[in-house]
Amino acid sequence: MDAASAVSAIAIFPSKPHSAHLTSVPLAPVGPDDVLAKTVLVGICGTDREIVEGKLGAAPDGMHELVIGHETLAIVEETGANVTQFKSGDLVTATVRRPCGCPPCQAGQVDFCEWHQYTERGIERIHGFMAERWVEHQRHLIAVPFELGDLGVLIEPMSIAEKALGQALAIQQRIAGWRPRQALVYGSGPIGLLATLIYRIHDIPVMVLGRRPADCPAAQIIRAAGGEYRSIASVTPFEAVRDLAPIDFIVECAG
Question: Where would I find the H helices in 70-180?
Answer without folding.
Answer: 103-106, 155-171
